[in-house]
């Protein structure tokens, strides 16, 4: 746990400083007052991840990468020392610039969450896929950066998630001890802090759509509390998706008119795609800033956001080509490169189909062509009880959203389209997930957010309608609406208390007096060795998991040849007869 705390402090300092420097540069040209400290941290996470991916194109991401990162942080500290000092002083004294909100009262609560999530990140269950390929992917980045044709050793090593580069940067493997995996837990802590705002809404007795999203985020955080020790890309994707939607709703609810924060959240959406491609439809949110900027013919700002999006995606795309030969592996519809280390098209197509049928509850790839009406009932029956309820609620929410949208079109009621865009984005993401590869850990965020944002938006609209009528008529609210309001508030409080008690119970019953100093290590498995051109490789004695220590490895003996003389030169598929 102590190791997690120390690494988190390092992550917090470096990402905050980098994020502050970048946002400071942007807001000099496009004036805007950043209101939340987490915006600096999230911006920093995007920047250092992109930096780690670029660095990996030339060398392993280790001591030198961290040294250069610290040097850049030192430069920003020196250049922005006065403004940064004023900002930190405002945090310390309890008032943020441009805001009347106080942070001092939350300090102890944030510290408590910091220690709680550090405890959870120091122990728990290691994800199955971490032993399969996450740990090996991270180690390749730590030691070699990027290697041509790495996916030929094991196709899942071509699943080039940006989260692995972030984990490698902060793994501290270069210290010679072990490779730590603390970044997923850090993101979970950051989201937990953001969810604290729901307490204010409960005290005021009025919930907004963002509060419903926060409730679902709390639900997810409790669910992964004993799993976030694992550097699985699914956790990064879900947490960042929650962040984008919650902060977007916060902006709408505060009446923010400046396009800059919306544009930057769209850049974060591009970053989310580099973490996991299944989040692609989050970019529907681009419609909002694009509409306003095109209407105003603000080409300069449009160019900035496009440039930021390209810079964010470019290292991910380059790594894709180097690792697999494909621009976006395992999807072969975009075939632009004819490099010798390219993963064969048949292998990539098979891999893509395997991902989809696995999400539908099958292991037989020949069932890929099954129509939705045939596999969907069996898939639904295989869900856990709570997941079934959420999926049903999400489907109902989609139908309610269609009615709600029709009401706006035919002017049955008048509402701003901005919230409808967010609701439509999460609903479209849910439907896309449901019809392609609906494994819950792939897309639970779409299920949760569809229920939360659609239901919360309708609830908020109904309550605000009543508030407007009360003001106009000088009357008290109708009895039934007051009852609904109290019931929703009560159920929300009870739900949060229940999840809090469930988390406490889980911590107590799973407690073990270990990992107080050093985080739980990767799980490693017994392996056998074999030689390829004089280099030792490993594969598991049974099953397909290897872990971190046996390196390099794959689930079975690889049929590959070297591009050169060493591992760093890369791999190609072994030709028949060789």
Short summary:
Helices cover 62% and strands 3% of the residues. The protein has 20 helices and 4 strands.
What do you see in this structure?
The strands form 2 sheets. Strands 1-2 form a two-stranded antiparallel ribbon. It has a two-stranded antiparallel ribbon with strand order 3-4. Residues 97-102 have low confidence and may be disordered. It is globular. The longest helix is centred in the C-terminal third of the chain and has 34 residues, at 440-473. Helix content is 62%, strand content 3%. It is built from 20 helices and 4 strands. It has helices at 2-29, 37-56, 63-79, 81-93, 107-121, 128-143, 162-169, 183-194, 198-204, 209-223, 233-253, 260-275, 287-295, 299-324, 345-359, 372-381, 385-409, 417-436, 440-473, 479-509, and strands at 527-532, 535-540, 560-562, 571-573. A hairpin with an 8-residue loop joins β3 and β4. By secondary structure, the protein is mainly alpha-helical.
Spell out the key features of this protein.
two-stranded antiparallel ribbon, single chain, 20 helices, two-stranded antiparallel sheet, 578 residues, mainly alpha, globular
What's the story with the biggest beta sheet? 2 strands, antiparallel
End-to-end span in angstroms? Answer: 50 Å
Number of strands: 4
Radius of gyration: 24 Å
The topology string of helices and strands comes to HHHHHHHHHHHHHHHHHHHHEEEE
Residue ranges: pLDDT <50 for 5 or more in a row?
97-102
Structural class: mainly alpha
Number of helices: 20
How would you state the average pLDDT, rounded?
A: 90
Spatial ordering of strands, largest sheet: 1-2
Residue share in helix: 55-70%
Describe the oligomeric state of these chains in a short phrase. single chain
Strand content: under 5%
Global outline: globular
């Amino acid at each position: 746990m102590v190791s997690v705390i120390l690494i988190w402090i390092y992550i917090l300092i470096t990402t905050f400083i980098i994020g502050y420097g970048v946002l400071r540069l942007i807001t000099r040209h496009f004036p805007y007052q950043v209101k939340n400290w987490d915006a600096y941290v999230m911006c920093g996470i995007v920047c250092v991840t992109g930096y780690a991916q670029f660095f990996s194109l030339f060398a392993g991401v280790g001591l030198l990468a961290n040294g250069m990162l610290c040097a850049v942080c030192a430069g920003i500290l020196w250049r922005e020392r006065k403004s940064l000092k004023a900002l930190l002083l405002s945090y310390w004294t309890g008032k943020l610039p441009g805001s009347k909100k106080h942070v001092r009262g939350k300090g102890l609560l944030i510290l408590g969450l910091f220690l709680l999530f550090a405890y959870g990140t120091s122990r728990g269950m290691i994800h199955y896929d971490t032993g399969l390929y996450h740990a090996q992917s991270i180690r390749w980045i730590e030691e070699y950066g990027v290697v041509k044709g790495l996916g030929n050793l094991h196709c899942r090593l071509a699943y080039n998630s940006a989260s692995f580069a972030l984990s490698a940067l902060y793994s501290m493997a270069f210290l010679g001890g072990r490779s730590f995996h603390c970044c997923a837990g850090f993101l979970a802590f950051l989201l937990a802090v953001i969810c604290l705002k729901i307490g204010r809404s409960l005290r005021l007795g009025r919930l907004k759509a963002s509060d419903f999203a926060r409730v679902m985020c709390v639900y997810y955080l409790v669910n992964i509390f004993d799993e976030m020790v694992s550097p699985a890309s699914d956790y990064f994707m879900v947490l960042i998706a929650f962040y984008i939607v919650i902060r977007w709703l916060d902006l709408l609810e505060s009446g923010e008119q400046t396009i800059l924060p919306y544009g930057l959240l769209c850049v974060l959406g591009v970053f989310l795609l580099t973490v996991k491609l299944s989040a692609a439809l989050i970019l529907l949110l681009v419609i909002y800033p694009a509409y306003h900027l095109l209407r105003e013919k603000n080409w300069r700002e449009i160019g900035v956001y496009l440039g930021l999006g390209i810079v964010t995606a470019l290292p991910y795309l380059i790594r894709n080509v180097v690792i697999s030969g494909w621009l976006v592996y395992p999807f072969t519809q975009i075939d632009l490169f004819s490099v010798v280390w390219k993963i064969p098209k048949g292998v990539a197509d098979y891999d893509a189909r395997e991902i989809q049928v696995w999400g539908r509850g099958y292991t037989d790839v020949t069932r890929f062509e099954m129509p939705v009406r045939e596999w969907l009932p069996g898939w639904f029956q295989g869900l856990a009880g709570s997941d079934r309820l959420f999926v049903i609620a999400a489907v109902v929410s989609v139908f309610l959203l269609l009615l709600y949208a029709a009401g706006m079109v035919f002017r049955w009621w008048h509402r701003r389209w901005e919230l409808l865009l967010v609701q439509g984005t999460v609903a479209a993401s849910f439907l896309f997930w449901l019809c392609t590869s609906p494994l819950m850990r792939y897309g639970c965020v779409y299920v949760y957010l569809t229920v939360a944002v659609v239901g919360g938006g309708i609830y908020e609209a109904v309550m605000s309608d009543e508030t407007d009528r009360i003001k106009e008529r000088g009357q008290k609210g109708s009895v039934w609406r007051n009852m609904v309001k109290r019931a929703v508030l009560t159920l929300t409080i009870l739900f949060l208390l229940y999840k809090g008690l469930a988390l406490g119970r889980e911590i107590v019953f799973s407690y073990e007096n270990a990992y107080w100093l050093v985080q739980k290590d990767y799980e490693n498995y017994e392996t056998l060795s074999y030689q390829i051109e004089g280099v030792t490789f490993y594969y598991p004695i049974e099953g397909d998991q290897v872990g971190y220590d046996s390196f390099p490895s794959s689930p079975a003996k690889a049929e590959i040849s070297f591009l050169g003389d060493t591992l760093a030169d890369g791999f190609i598929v072994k030709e028949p007869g060789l």
